[in-house]
């Protein structure tokens, strides 16, 4: 296709970009292309052309489902949350009442199944926390799931198992339809590829979905430990395609908990107690899992949030070799910052978390020697940064991620730890899968923005319209071709 009349840098002259066989084949002054035009012609009208966005960490099925759930992110206590549910109860039929987005780290009370039972007696209720590490179930739903739990509040591994059990009660056809439709919404946001960390047999799930329709973004699906052996038997490697636009991604290992549940594993205890968080695998088991995956060519992606979890995860990478990814890397001791680049480990981070977690991080991690959300430190040390959203934890909004990484605030408050803010070009590259500019020979995955980010303020960058998204030289959103 020919993408006509676009600018590649603020104040630059208009150019035409020709794609051939899914790659950028020619970039030249507007109206100067010498190649025969193949496929559509997209007139950019002087808008800015950038490499398209990549969401390197989301949970696609959970995000698609969250779009229809009750938003309880504004609840400031367990009682307040249940009041929100009670006001919404009649509007949500008679099945399982699903809600999403609570943060209980600073609540004056604690979630408990009895709180749900007292206000919504007999109603099956499932409330998922903002960080997907806590699932709060009512007694009625626990009974339906055949689960006996003292509080009904499932955290970390228990939460993953509970979510998996709930998924089995969901109509598969409806879920598949909603998830495939959600990929079109991702394309509308300028995204052409994602890494899907949904906890499931993702080979089977995506193999089933592509029989119905192709996703509007490229899917790289994660492998969890339960399905690792099967992938190794198949001889599958990270990057291997199972169908057009669907490929095997990394091995996902949950190594610690999260900040808001106070289970992220830290060197120092959390305030008011002796707990310093939890490890969900022993360091020895982590090494064994990573080594097994690496032996078959599957890249490890290790969830590590607290500083101790990150130290131990980097130790494991040092022992196994071959590099990989750490997901989140939210708290690091200074000596570990240097290790990412040295070990070939990418930092897969979510800048929106830094802003939404700032108050909780100040309360639970304040005054420590470690660095919270150390994006600039990692960049200066040569680490490769990959941006994602962890949707539905944060919305899959690459423009917000860039703005949060650059300005470290999304409201009228001063920047939070501005010393860790990133330069704009580095943030853009991290949001675009490591691609900083349009280059000959690169995949023709591009996004057309109404204005270049370099000329926009914090607020305006978040709102700049995405005019078109192109994946491998084909339009997936907007930009009526001529």
CATH top level label of the largest domain: Alpha Beta
Name of the CATH superfamily of the largest domain: Metal-dependent hydrolases
| Radius of gyration using CA atoms only | 23 Å
Total beta strands:
24
What is the CATH topology of the largest domain?
Answer: TIM Barrel
- Mean pLDDT over the full residue set: 95
Q: What's the structural domain tally?
A: 3
Low-confidence stretches: none
- Report how far apart the termini are: 10 Å
The helix content is 25-40%
The proportion of residues in beta strands is 15-25%
Task: Kindly name the structural category.
Answer: alpha/beta
* CATH architecture descriptor text of the largest domain: Alpha-Beta Barrel
What would the principal axes of the Cα set say about the shape?
Answer: globular
Number of helices: 18
| Main β sheet profile | 9 strands, mixed
InterPro entries: Amidohydro_3, Metal-dep_hydrolase_composite, Metal_Hydrolase
Pfam family, one: Amidohydro_3
Domain Amidohydrolase: 41-477
Protein name: Amidohydrolase family protein
Describe the 3D structure.
It holds the Pfam family Amidohydro_3. This is Amidohydrolase family protein. The chain is α/β, with parallel strands linked by helices. It folds into three domains: 1-51 and 437-482, Urease, subunit C, domain 1; 54-60 and 172-431, Metal-dependent hydrolases (TIM Barrel, Alpha-Beta Barrel), CATH 3.20.20; 69-167, Diaminopimelate Epimerase, Chain A, domain 1 (Roll). Strands 6, 12, 13, 14, 15, 16, 17, 19 and 21 form a nine-stranded mixed sheet that branches. Strands 7-8-9-10-11 form a five-stranded mixed sheet. Helix 16 (398-407) runs antiparallel to helix 17.
């Amino acid at each position: 296709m020919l993408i006509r009349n676009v600018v590649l840098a603020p104040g630059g002259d208009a150019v035409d970009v020709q794609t051939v066989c899914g790659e950028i084949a020619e970039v030249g002054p507007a109206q100067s292309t010498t190649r025969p035009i193949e496929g559509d012609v997209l007139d950019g009208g002087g808008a800015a052309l950038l490499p398209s966005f990549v969401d390197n960490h989301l949970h696609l099925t959970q995000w698609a489902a969250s779009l229809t759930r009750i938003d309880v992110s504004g609840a400031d206590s367990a009682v307040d949350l249940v009041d929100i549910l009670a006001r919404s109860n009649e509007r949500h039929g008679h099945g399982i009442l699903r809600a999403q987005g609570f943060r209980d780290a600073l609540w004056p009370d604690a979630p408990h199944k009895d709180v749900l039972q007292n206000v919504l007696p007999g109603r099956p209720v499932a409330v998922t926390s903002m960080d997907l590490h806590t699932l709060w179930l009512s007694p009625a739903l626990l009974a339906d799931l055949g689960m006996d739990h003292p509080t009904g509040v499932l955290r970390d591994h228990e939460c993953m198992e509970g979510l998996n059990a709930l998924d089995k009660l969901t109509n598969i056809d409806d879920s598949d339809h909603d998830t495939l439709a959600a990929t079109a919404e991702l394309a509308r946001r300028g995204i052409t590829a994602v890494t899907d960390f949904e906890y499931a047999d993702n080979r089977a799930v995506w193999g089933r979905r592509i029989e119905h329709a192709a996703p509007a973004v490229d899917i790289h699906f994660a492998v969890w430990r339960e399905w690792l052996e099967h992938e190794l038997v198949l001889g599958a490697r990270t990057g291997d395609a199972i169908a057009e636009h669907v490929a095997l991604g990394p091995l996902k290992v949950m190594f610690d908990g999260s900040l808001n549940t106070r289970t992220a594993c830290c060197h120092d205890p959390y305030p008011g107690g002796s707990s310093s968080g939890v490890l969900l695998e022993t360091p020895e088991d982590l090494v064994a899992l990573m080594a097994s995956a690496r032996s078959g060519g599957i890249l490890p992606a290790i969830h590590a949030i607290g500083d101790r979890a990150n130290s131990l995860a980097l130790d494991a990478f040092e022992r196994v070799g071959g590099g990989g990814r750490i997901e989140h890397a939210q708290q690091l001791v200074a000596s570990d910052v240097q290790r990412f680049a040295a070990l070939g480990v990418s930092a897969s981070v979510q800048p929106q978390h830094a802003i939404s977690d700032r108050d909780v991080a100040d309360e639970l991690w304040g005054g420590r020697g470690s660095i919270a959300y150390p994006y600039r430190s990692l960049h200066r040390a040569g680490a490769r940064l990959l941006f994602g959203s962890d949707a539905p934890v944060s919305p899959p909004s690459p423009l917000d991620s860039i703005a949060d990484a650059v300005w470290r605030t999304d409201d009228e408050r001063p920047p939070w730890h501005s010393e860790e803010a990133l330069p704009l070009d580095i943030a853009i590259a991290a949001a675009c899968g490591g691609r900083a500019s349009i280059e000959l020979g690169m995949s023709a995955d591009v996004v057309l923005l109404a204005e270049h980010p370099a000329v926009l303020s914090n607020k305006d960058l978040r709102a700049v319209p995405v005019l078109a998204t192109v994946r491998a030289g084909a339009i997936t959103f907007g930009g009526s071709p001529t």
